[in-house]
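Bench notes, bay 3.
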Amino acid sequence: MTASDWRKILKQLKSREVKVKKFLKHNKPKERKYGIATKKCERCGRFGAHISSYGLNLCRHCFREIAEEIGFRKYS
């Protein structure tokens, strides 16, 4: 079950409070303390290729798109 799957089902159950609690107890992914899934891109949500230097918390794809807006310069 992917992260988006359990959120979709949760939206369908929002009117039934007891079922929501039981569903979350058994199906919500656990919070990660270490490993690749702990760091997530703040812009797109990707897990891999994460740049945490300077407190950026972006994946490399998003960093390339907005690097000049942030103030980084590209040297050939």
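Next record in the batch:
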Amino acid sequence: MSFEPHEVNGQPGAIFRDRDSKILHTLVLEVLDGQIQTIRTVINPDKLGHLGPVADAWAIDREVKQARRQMN
């Protein structure tokens, strides 16, 4: 996974991407008087599509779980 700093809805934040550069989720910092007030994330693929291709987070989760099982 990687992330890139990005303005999201006019607020400072980041876009998190999978290894194929598809969007996993976003993170937004709501800042007031120089202090972070709220941290919000969006993981709903229906709300991320306007930013670009969206990753299949469930497939990634299954892949990680399978890899962990194989390590044990």
